[in-house]
Design brief:
By secondary structure, the protein is an all-alpha fold. It has one domain. 65% of the residues lie in helices and 0% in strands. The radius of gyration is 18 Å and the shape is globular.
Length: 226
């Protein structure tokens, strides 16, 4: 079930993520300098928390009336497919920093492992809190399941804290939207809501567009990409 205010908030998170990923591209190509702990670093974590948390809320709403895995299985399959496409493409073009467990990998995993507690918010909250303190390993091989602490990649979403945030979002949704009804009566512009309802498509295509713009404007030589 769709809640317009959630779609609007998701659209906001998406736009912020696109801006931040562009900043990441500029930093990667040496056109801008960002550092751990600066404004961009904090804004990236706030935006990611918002995006992942909303995904947890939406997961609860999808199963609020029908406890049926098929309600979200189609999206889960698309997440898995595009997650591995991104892994392959980044390995081809940026093998030193390719994506092994990015945001799509995380959301695909979350969509599977959260199902048993989709309608048990107290268990979801407990799992979420445990995930926030679960230690990550120094074993780099565990990056494939989001349990490695030090990873050099253009996108990495370890289980701590991100899967924890997903579960906490799921748990809070039962309190915020117990009846699945919007909290506000605001009529959001349909074009804006479209962004919030098509986040996966936009996320998948945004990097080729951003990097293409950098190449076309002469900021990054084509040889640097291929």
């Amino acid at each position: 079930m769709r809640v317009d205010e959630l779609d609007s908030l998701r659209a906001t998170a998406l736009v912020l993520m696109l801006v931040l990923n562009f900043v990441t591209d500029l930093n990667h190509f040496g056109l801008m300098n960002t550092e751990t702990g600066d404004m961009w670093w904090w804004l990236a974590r706030i935006t990611a928390s918002l995006f992942v948390g909303i995904s947890g809320v939406s997961y609860f709403l999808a199963h609020r009336l029908e406890y049926d895995f098929t309600k979200t299985s189609g999206r889960t399959k698309r997440l898995i497919f595009w997650a591995f496409v991104i892994t392959i493409i980044t390995y081809i073009f940026e093998p030193s920093v390719y994506v092994r467990f990015g945001v799509l990998h995380l959301l695909a995993l979350a969509s599977i492992v959260a199902f048993p507690v989709a309608r048990k918010p107290e268990f979801a909250l407990g799992i979420g809190l445990i995930l926030l303190i679960i230690p990550l390993s120094s074993n780099s091989n565990l990056v494939w399941i989001g349990l490695s602490e030090t990873v050099i990649a253009v996108d990495y979403f370890p289980l701590n804290p991100w899967l924890g945030i997903f579960f906490i979002g799921l748990a809070l949704a039962s309190r915020i939207y117990p009846e699945g009804k919007p909290l506000t009566g605001i009529r959001w512009p349909e074009k804006w809501l479209w962004f919030g309802r098509n986040t996966l498509t936009i996320y998948v295509i945004h990097q080729p567009i951003l990097i293409g713009l950098l190449v076309l404007t002469g900021q990054v030589p084509l040889e640097r990409i291929i």
